[in-house]
Design goal:
The chain is an alpha+beta fold. The chain has 2 domains: 3-55, no CATH class; 58-273. It has 7 helices and 7 strands. The strands form 2 sheets. Strands 1-2-3-4-5 form a 5-stranded antiparallel sheet. Strand 2 and strand 3 (27-31) form a beta hairpin.
Length: 278
């Protein structure tokens, strides 16, 4: 079943959905997120019959299933720990305890970010000659900025690393106000910006262009909830700026509650990813 023509959809230079006609009269549809997360493409056969999903080979399915489990667990646990750290900061024993809880949660975010990137790097690729997904050799890294899924997950992973700098610096004691803003607040802001960029790219990917509401799409719900978490993280970061004149945060309550609510969003998004698997 070789292809005869193609129709591409997406935004800007990115292709997120590709439809091509088969010689038997049917069509095959490849979509970036379902192929990357579930190892699936859709085949519509002639005669008006219902479309059917075609799964990648067992090697790809096994890889995707394992990476999905790691990603889901990492973000679920990491988000829960961030929420716990925010609760400790607001109601608990003090900043030292919350800083260590945040730091451990950040390690889970690092693991989830890298597993997400590995899922994009090792996603089954469309076979240009058939209505099938082909498996490549395992890779720990690639450089593919022309792919929106790779770019989104790479920016997400870098964002988790920048957050790691923020969380590591927050363990330091005796910092001046200027050092707090430079070593803790500035990386926090950069990490939030990277999370927002990654989330926007993920929305463009799942919506095949301009972001819109797709309530029947599990992938859309996961991306939308995570993006809401990123917005709340940004609100928290803005409120966490330490005023040089007073030595106090702009608003401690907003900083803590924004982190707690944003972390719960990522935890819920991680839990939903358990169901977005081959």
């Amino acid at each position: 079943m070789s292809q005869t023509e193609e129709h591409a959809e997406g935004a800007g230079p990115f292709t997120t959905r590709l439809t091509w006609r088969l010689l038997d009269g049917g069509t095959a549809v490849w979509e970036s997120r379902p192929a990357r997360k579930r190892g699936l493409l859709t085949v519509r056969v002639p005669g008006g019959l219902a479309p059917r999903s075609r799964r990648a080979d067992s090697v790809s399915v096994s890889r995707l299933r394992s990476l999905n489990a790691i990603t889901s667990a990492a973000f679920t646990v990491g988000g829960a720990l961030f929420a716990l750290g925010a609760g400790a900061a607001q109601f608990g024993p003090g900043d030292a305890t919350s800083a260590w809880v945040y730091f451990v949660g950040g390690l889970f975010f690092n693991a989830g970010g890298y597993a997400s990137l590995l899922q994009a790097v090792n996603a089954p690729r469309r076979d240009s000659g058939t209505a099938a997904l082909a498996t490549g050799s395992w890779r720990w890294w690639s450089y593919e900025p022309a792919r929106i899924d790779w770019l989104s997950t790479c920016v997400l992973f870098v964002g988790t690393l920048v957050f790691g700098i923020n969380l590591l610096d927050s363990l330091l004691q005796g910092l001046s106000v200027q050092q707090v803003n430079r070593l803790i607040w500035a990386p926090d802001m950069v990490g939030c910006i990277l999370f927002l960029i990654s989330g926007h790219l993920a929305l463009v990917e799942v919506c095949h262009g301009r972001p819109r509401v797709r309530p029947r799409d599990l992938g859309w719900w996961i991306v939308a909830i995570n993006q809401l978490g990123s917005v709340l993280f940004m609100v928290s970061a803005l409120a966490a700026f330490t005023r040089p004149t007073t030595g106090s945060m702009v608003n401690v309550g907003i900083a803590n509650w924004g982190t707690l609510a944003g972390a719960l969003c990522f935890s819920v998004g991680g839990a939903l990813q358990f169901f977005e698997r081959p």
